[in-house]
Design a protein that fits this description.
Layout lengths: L1 H5 L4 H7 L28 E4 L5 E5 L15 H16 L42 H14 L6 H4 L10 E3 L7 E4 L4 H5 L6 E5 L2 E2 L3 H10 L4 E9 L2 E9 L23 E2 L3 H7 L8 E3 L7 H5 L6 E5 L8 H10 L6 E8 L2 E8 L2
Antiparallel strand pairs: 1-2, 3-4, 5-6, 5-7, 7-8, 9-10, 10-11, 11-12, 12-13
Helix pairs in contact: 2-3
């Protein structure tokens, strides 16, 4: 997607971009985090800004290697977002009040090198290492961990897609419902396939990313006012966000989760499971690799160990459930006890939570 935009391959997009002053940033070192807040695990993202730093909207949702465009971005979608930004600009500054919440919250630092975690890593002028987008999430998550607090849902499951609420949006259109899951929060709110979501929580929307932005900073539980265009008719709806609605979101694709993993979480071979003595429904995880200086390695865990219990719990769990437990139920320095099978013997290792 980056190459398609940079090369102006699409004529529609090329003509639209001529109406913007385009600036391309390739790393986060020196970026003002008081303004440029977004889903930092994105491989590609767009900000639509007024010269006075008012944010009109964002574009860019999870992208992957499956195609040139990615999982949830497309040239068509970007064209629609550009058109939406131009419409907002045409109404500016009369609509400025509706854009106020498109600016982010105050972070612990306004530049990545100001976070304690990265002061040494990015020291020097120029810095010794590149600062990538996902490093910002790493830095932000390090603050509550250093203060021995669990990660809140908005940090553990950042920028959850509206799919979690049963609202699947069309990547080729402007915040438009592709489908609505029966019985979901979106269904109960009255959303229908084909609805174009004009506003949510009082904010005008031009993309899936804009919807994610509203959801990211909504206090839960809460009711979000929505307005949709349904066949030319404006319809008002109320979307209910229940407590813990994000939980269950898959975050393992995110580059920022790599530092969260104490070890590689692998599936055992059938004979390994049998040898471990794990029954159906019980935990059996093969340690596939460990960072050489990480807490699990220092505590004695090794690749090939078969984990059969965590803090005495033998119930089967996914890696996602394990990470939730480690970072939302345990704080930094608290011990986690692993029961492992190694060379036919059961051993226990105590690992300090990072």
């Amino acid at each position: 997607m980056d190459a398609q935009v940079a090369r102006r391959e699409d004529l529609r997009l090329r003509e639209l971009l001529e109406q913007f002053v385009c600036v391309r940033a390739v790393e986060m070192e020196g970026v003002d985090l008081s303004l440029f807040q977004f889903d930092y695990d994105m491989s590609w993202h767009v900000f639509f800004l007024n010269a006075d730093r008012t944010v009109y909207g964002r574009y860019g949702t999870r992208a992957g290697p499956e195609s040139a465009e990615g999982n949830d971005v497309s040239v068509d979608g970007l064209v629609e977002a550009c058109l939406g930004a131009l419409e907002i600009h045409a109404g500016y500054p009369a609509n400025k009040a509706s854009l106020a919440k498109k600016r982010g919250v105050k972070l612990e630092a306004n530049e990545i090198r100001q976070f304690p975690l990265f002061k040494s890593r990015f020291a020097g002028d120029p810095p010794r290492n590149c600062a990538h987008c996902h490093h910002v999430f790493e830095a932000v998550r390090s603050v509550p961990r250093s203060e021995k607090r669990p990660l809140s849902d908005d940090l553990m499951f950042p920028f959850a897609k509206p799919d979690r609420l049963g609202l699947v949006l069309d990547k080729s259109k402007r915040a438009t419902a592709l489908s609505v899951a029966p019985g979901s929060a979106a269904d109960k709110a009255g959303f229908r396939a084909g609805d174009r979501v004009l506003s949510l929580g009082g904010q005008p929307l031009i993309s899936i990313a804009d919807v994610q932005w509203v959801l990211q900073f909504a206090t839960e539980p809460c009711d979000l006012a929505a307005e949709v265009d349904r066949g030319g008719e404006r319809v008002k709806l109320t979307l209910r966000l229940e407590k813990n609605w994000r939980r269950g979101e898959d975050i393992l694709w995110r580059a920022s989760t790599q530092p969260l993993r104490l070890f590689g979480w692998g599936a055992p071979a059938p004979d390994e499971r049998e040898q471990s003595g794990a029954k159906p429904g019980e935990l059996c995880v093969r340690v596939t690799n460990l960072p050489p200086n990480g807490p699990a390695y220092r505590a004695g865990l090794r690749a090939g160990d078969m984990i059969v219990a965590i803090d005495g719990d033998r119930r089967s769990k996914t890696e996602m459930e394990w990470l939730e437990y480690l970072y939302q139920e345990r704080v930094r320095g608290q011990e986690v006890t692993f029961t492992v099978m190694r060379a036919g013997k059961r051993e226990k290792f105590k690992v300090e939570a990072p």
